[in-house]
């Protein structure tokens, strides 16, 4: 599949995302935030960084960009959409994913390798995390509903939840399963040189959504 | 507009400020919460609630209050 990677002013992980998409798929191209053109793109990555300087709230302004309007339409049509870190925040603010991401409980920007467990397969993934606002939050009733629907995609392994996320949640999907957001960075774990290739499994998961 | 964290949601920023107070000699202060204030001029107040719901606050995690001056 061919991926499109959004680029906002303040994005900083779009190049790694592009590289990861090229490894995991058949090609990838950048999509500037002012463009609505998703032609030839099967799936979309909303990458990490600090879109629009994280002004107001992380992701709050990016969601109104023309590119995000096009992504919302594509998501409604069933296209796979992967939001990483700031991209996860953008998807939550846009209402494409349930919940919100708050300041880390310890107030520190955390940057380290974390272990994730994929819910369902129980596979363990080693992937870097780097964020200051990654504490996943949703009201209890919403969380219960998400658990029932199988919308919890990844949890931090025991001892790896360093941001205080509720129920150790690291990644969630929408009801349909084609939109996935997670705080850790699979695009930084696609080559043995950087210690792990487990990130590819996240991209492969999204490819299966497209199939 | 005054925007503050919803009651019951952990507010680590408020907690950090609260913890710093005794060291500065401020006693008897608790329940510190840090929010933000947005000032704007509007020709009519009609759509300000909508503005808060859609952009200035995230209703899932924040409460807002509109004060007219």
Describe it.
- The complex is a heterodimer of chains A (211) and B (69).
- Helices cover 25% and strands 27% of the residues of chain A.
- Chain A has 211 residues and is α/β, with parallel strands linked by helices.
- Chain A has one domain (2-210): Class I glutamine amidotransferase (GATase) domain (Rossmann fold, 3-Layer(aba) Sandwich), CATH 3.40.50.
- In chain A, the strands form 2 sheets. In chain A, strands 2-1-3-4-11-10-9-6-7 form a 9-stranded mixed sheet, with helices on both faces. A two-stranded antiparallel ribbon of chain A has the order 5-8.
- In chain A, helix 1 (14-24) packs across helix 5 (199-210).
- The longest helix of chain A is centred in the last third of the chain and has 12 residues, at 199-210.
- The N and C termini of chain A lie close together (9 Å).
- The mean pLDDT of chain A is 96.
- Chain B has a 3-stranded antiparallel sheet, with no helix packed on it.
- Chain B has helices at residues 12-20, 48-56, and strands spanning 2-5, 36-37, 62-65.
- The A-B interface holds A 56-57, 60, 64, 93, 99-100, 102-107, 135, 137-139, 164 and B 9-10, 12-13, 16, 55-56, 58, 60-61.
Offer a few descriptive terms.
heterodimer, A: 211 residues, alpha/beta, Rossmann fold, nine-stranded mixed sheet, two-stranded antiparallel sheet, 11 strands, 25% helix, 27% strand, globular, B: 69 residues, alpha+beta, three-stranded antiparallel sheet, 3 strands, 26% helix
Largest interface, C-beta within 8 A: A-B, 18 and 10 residues
Q: Give the beta-strand count of chain A.
A: 11
The helix/strand series of chain A, from N terminus to C terminus, equals EHEEHEHEEEEHEEEH
Largest sheet geometry of chain A: 9 strands, mixed
SSE inventory with pairings:
The complex is a heterodimer of chains A (211) and B (69).
Chain A (H helix, E strand, L loop, with lengths): L1 E6 L6 H11 L2 E6 L10 E4 L19 H11 L4 E4 L1 H8 L6 E3 L7 E9 L5 E8 L3 E3 L2 H10 L2 E5 L12 E5 L5 E4 L16 H12 L1
Parallel strand pairs in A: 1-2, 1-3, 3-4, 4-11
Antiparallel strand pairs in A: 5-8, 6-7, 6-9, 9-10, 10-11
Helix pairs in contact in A: 1-5
Chain B lengths: L1 E4 L6 H9 L15 E2 L10 H9 L5 E4 L4
Antiparallel strand pairs in B: 1-2, 1-3
């Amino acid at each position: 599949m061919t991926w499109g990677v959004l680029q906002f002013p303040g994005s900083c992980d779009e190049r790694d995302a592009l590289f990861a998409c090229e490894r995991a798929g058949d090609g990838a191209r950048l999509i500037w935030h002012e463009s609505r053109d998703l032609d030839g793109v099967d799936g979309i990555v909303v990458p990490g960084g600090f879109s629009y300087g994280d002004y107001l709230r992380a992701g709050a302004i990016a969601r109104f960009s023309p590119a995000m309007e096009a992504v919302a339409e594509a998501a409604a049509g069933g296209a796979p959409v992967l939001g990483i870190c700031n991209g996860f925040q953008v998807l939550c603010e846009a209402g494409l994913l349930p919940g919100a991401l708050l300041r880390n409980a310890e107030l520190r920007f955390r940057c380290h390798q974390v272990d994730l467990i994929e819910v369902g397969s129980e596979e363990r993934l080693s992937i870097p995390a780097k964020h200051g606002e990654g504490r996943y939050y949703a009201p209890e009733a919403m969380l219960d509903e998400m658990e029932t629907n199988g919308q919890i995609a990844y949890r931090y392994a025991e001892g790896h939840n360093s941001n205080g996320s509720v129920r150790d949640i690291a990644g969630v999907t929408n009801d349909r399963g084609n939109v996935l957001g997670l705080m850790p960075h699979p695009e930084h774990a696609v080559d043995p040189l950087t210690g792990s290739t487990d990130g590819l499994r996240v991209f492969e998961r999204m490819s299966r959504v497209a199939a | 507009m005054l925007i503050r964290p919803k009651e019951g949601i952990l507010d680590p920023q408020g907690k950090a400020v609260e913890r710093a107070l005794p060291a500065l000699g401020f006693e008897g202060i608790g329940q510190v919460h840090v929010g933000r204030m947005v000032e704007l001029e509007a020709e009519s107040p009609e759509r300000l609630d909508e503005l808060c719901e859609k952009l200035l606050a995230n209703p899932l995690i924040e409460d807002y209050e509109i004060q007219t001056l």
